[in-house]
Design brief:
The protein has helices at residues 45-52, 74-78, 96-106, 111-124, 140-151, 170-185, 197-203, 221-228, 243-251, 274-287, 302-310, 315-322, and strands at 5-16, 19-30, 34-38, 60-65, 68-69, 81-84, 158-162, 189-194, 206-211, 214-219, 232-237, 259-261, 266-270, 292-298. With 323 residues, it is of the alpha/beta class. Bound molecules: adenosine-5'-triphosphate and magnesium ion (MG).
Length: 323
């Protein structure tokens, strides 16, 4: 019995020496949905995926996938899942079609069925035109789609996607998103890890935020965005003395108190009607003759999520700031 959940994990623990990669991690993924697992480098996303897909053993807690216990029924779990790892698994020397046929045979499909399945998947992932080209000629997005296709050979009920779009250009990213949406429309449950708030927001119906091996938030994308605040308008001035006047101008269009940063000469505030707020502020500043270095709109990022939930920035950001 799954109780409507394709994945359930309770108090998962995983240690690597002194390091607690997972430290009481909880997760519940509803059947037939995309669930986002959002977190920075080293948060424990890959470790969670590896435990749930039975590739590594857990040290504590329990987890079920498709109603099956990952520790006690690993073989049964494996028969129901697909996994696309963080790094591409396809063979560069082979064509797309050859790769899929090879995976089919690895899964004991038999030659004829493997060929048939390869053709179906090439079609489904929009790779038919490139089917007989070597994978070394594929773009990043095509490669990722081929990876997705390979993990769908056995039509799994639960698919784990570990950072499927990291390093892709925006267009390829959009193509992978389309493929994921199609999979879910076909009934597959997807657990997708990502470092991009935008990606989780676009694809997932629920998002778990993970930090240092623990879930620190579990919410709908809208709920999460409400917690962290939505879009912000940001003005950078050239003279510190202008900050109070800019605060007044920004306050007229914002939905909350503007905040200012005296060292970065920055004034920012939450806005809902983005474009009219931007136009209004730009016009008023010009009318009042206040010189500005920069003015723009900013969407919340993973760093904003972290700052709001934990009070500190992501480690990547801290390192970046220290450098
Ligand atoms: N095999 C391992 N041996 C030792 N430490 C490990 C191992 N695998 C993961 N870790 C550590 O556990 C923590 C969690 O790593 P994990 O790979 O799960 O993070 P992640 O969220 O997937 O990060 P990324 O976004 O960089 O892929 C990190 O501190 C990592 O260094
Ligand atoms: Mg990872």
């Amino acid at each position: 019995m799954t109780g409507g959940f394709a994945v359930r994990a309770e108090a998962l623990e995983k240690r690597y020496g002194e390091k607690r990669a997972l430290d009481g991690f909880d997760l519940a993924v509803r059947e037939g949905t995309v669930h986002g697992l959002l977190g920075p480098n080293g948060a424990g996303k890959t470790t969670a995926v590896r435990i749930l897909s039975t590739l590594v053993r857990l040290d504590g807690g329990q987890a079920t996938v498709a109603g099956l216990d990952v520790a006690r029924q690993p073989r049964e779990v494996r028969a129901r899942i697909g996994l696309t790892g963080q790094y591409a698994a396809v063979d560069e020397v082979l064509t797309g079609r050859q790769n899929l046929e090879m995976f089919g045979r690895l899964f004991h499909l038999g030659g004829r069925r493997a060929r048939q399945r390869a053709t179906e998947l090439l079609e489904q992932f929009d790779l038919t035109d490139a089917a007989d080209k070597g994978v070394d000629k594929y773009s990043g997005g095509m490669r990722r789609r081929l990876d997705l296709a390979a993990s769908m050979i056995l039509a799994p009920s639960v698919l784990f996607l570990d950072e499927p779009t990291t390093g892709l250009d925006p267009r390829s990213r959009g193509e992978v998103w389309d493929s994921v949406r199609e999979l879910v429309a076909g009934g597959t449950t997807v657990l997708l890890t990502t470092q991009y708030l935008e990606e989780a927001d676009k694809l997932a119906s629920r998002i778990t935020v993970i930090d240092q091996g623990r879930a620190i938030a579990d919410d709908t994308p809208d709920g999460l965005k409400n917690t962290i605040g939505g879009d912000r308008i940001e003005v950078v001035v050239t003279e510190r003395a202008d900050i109070p006047r800019v605060v007044k101008v920004v306050a007229r269009v914002s939905d909350g108190e503007p905040e200012s940063d005296e060292t970065e000469l920055r004034v920012h505030a939450p806005v809902t009607d983005r474009v009219s707020a931007l136009t209004e502020v730009a016009r008023t500043l010009q009318d009042e003759g206040i010189p500005v270095e920069d003015i723009g709109l900013r969407r919340p990022s993973l760093d904003d999520v972290f700052l709001r939930l934990t009070g500190h920035r992501t480690e990547n950001e801290e390192k970046g700031a220290a450098a």
